[in-house]
Amino acid sequence: MNIILFGPPGAGKGTQADIIVKNFKLIKISTGDLLREEMEQKTDLGLKIKSRMDQGKLIADDIITDLITKIISEKKSVEDIIFDGYPRNLNQAKILDTLIKKYNQRISCVLSLDVDKETLKKRILGRIICTNCGMTFNKYFNPPNEKTHDCGANYLKLRSDDTENTINSRIEIYTNQTLPILEYYEDKKILHKIDATGEIDKIYEEIRGIITSLET
Ligand code: AP5
Ligand code: MG
After folding, report:
1. pTM summary value
2. CB atoms < 10 A from the CB of 105, how many?
3. Which of 83, 87, 120, 148 is most buried per CB count within 10 Å?
4. Tens-digit pLDDT profile for residues 67-115
5. Residue list, ligand 1 pocket, CB within 6 Å
6. Which of 19, 55, 84, 123 to mutate to test the pocket of ligand 1 (most atoms within 8 A of CB)?
7. DSSP states of 114-143 as a string?
């Protein structure tokens, strides 16, 4: 089973993907995480993309395709994957279809998380990430504490693209370039729209129901 977690910046794609992989035999591929890792390690690619990432602009399709192709060829299949934040435009969606077909696989469902703009802004501006364990927290909604996080406060950081300045343009890019792909998946009859404004656990329950129904 292959799943795409779809939604605007701050919708909770990463949060839900992390819960899903703990409960189902799926692995997460997040193009955002892969790109941030390149920046963290200051690789040639990381240095090249930093400015665009910080401005919240999309990275070129050929760079993204190289990253995805590398992972898939290492894994030798496209099976039991949750794609988080990929594909981001129609071209990437078609490239993913081509890659998947080579392995006789398909996308089982697209879970589209719907959240209003004001909530997205609050989630993005409150986000705190741990650079050691990769967990995501939120200053307003789920602050890290001794029970939920033990790497220590030194690893807790804000994301460099989580600023007041970039939020509007990230949401605009999503609306203009990413959101139109939903029609592509709607036509394939694999689209599930989810109201993702509520609590993390309640949203996950709805997602769990959908994934379970696909397994049977
Ligand atoms: P990416 O890392 O994919 O970022 P994004 O799409 O902007 O999404 P976010 O990671 O900001 O949000 P999320 O939906 O994962 O929310 P989260 O779970 O963290 O991409 C970053 C950049 O990389 C792009 O701008 C682009 O430059 C580049 N890029 C990546 N992929 C690309 C591609 N395929 N092509 C081209 N460029 C690409 O939650 C947000 C916060 O809210 C957290 O603090 C969380 O704790 C909290 N939260 C989550 N759910 C809830 C809830 N239900 N209630 C309360 N709080 C919640
Ligand atoms: Mg994310």
Report:
1. 0.96
2. 17
3. 87
4. 999 998 888 777 899 999 999 999 999 999 999 999 899 999 999 999 9
5. 7, 9-15, 31-32, 35, 52-53, 56-59, 64, 85-86, 88, 92, 123-124, 126-127, 136-138, 141-142, 161, 170, 199-200, 203
6. 123
7. E--HHHHHHHHHHEEEETTT--EEETTTB-
